[in-house]
Amino acid sequence: MDNLLKNIFKGISIILIAIATIYQIVIFYQGGSPSDTVLDGYFLVAYIAFGISALCAILFPIIQVIANPKDAVRSLIVVAFLVALWFVAYALSDNSFTPAQLENMETNEQTSRLVGAGLFYTYFIFIMAIGATIYASISSIFK
Predict the structure, then answer these.
(1) N or C, which terminus of the chain has less Cβ within 10 Å?
(2) What would the pLDDT profile of 15-29 be if each residue is shown by its tens digit?
């Protein structure tokens, strides 16, 4: 099954790369400003590739959960932790702008708080990534 899927996606990738290469050659051949029809085809290939990628990103985790439910529990725990971390980031964030400043920035208090939560969440993930890197480096020394 894995080999079949690998071969199917390899074939689809080669076909999309070939079509995109042909469009790229046509764009180079036309010179300075390529026609809209060539660019439309080029973007169509990009949209198809994006659609296939999005479909695979949704479909394969579902197949993996069905095939291996024990590992799915571990993944769900990680997702629950990340959601809880988002709520912690949201709780820590606040709106530190005055109403006049918010009006000047053309935003509202909720948007300001969501941006703050996004920043806190990014900081948390960054710190965890650095911690994981340090842990991996140190643990590899002792193995």
Answers:
(1) C
(2) 888 888 887 787 777
